[in-house]
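[audit] Reproducing an earlier prediction to check determinism. Same input, same settings, fresh worker. If the tokens differ from the archived copy the diff job will pick it up downstream; this log only records the rerun itself.
[audit] input (80 residues):
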Amino acid sequence: MTNDELYSKLKETLVNDFDIEESAITPEANIVTDLDLDSIDAVEMIVKMKPLLHGKIEPEDFKAVKTVQDVVDILLPLTK
């Protein structure tokens, strides 16, 4: 899976499952302040992305995530 493909899947998940306006979702969008996701939403987002992953996310890796691109950067290696 490419960066763009994963970004598209993440964007689709945010729009469909979290009712976030598509125009608000950019690589630079902060998942807390711009997209209004709390920590429970963030966990749910990762659970929804899990079918695309072949590895396990380490909780400490996800603690540093701030933007949509950060999410993609953490998940991308796990899609291969």
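[audit] rerun output stored. Observation attached for the diff report: The chain has a mean pLDDT of 94.
[audit] end
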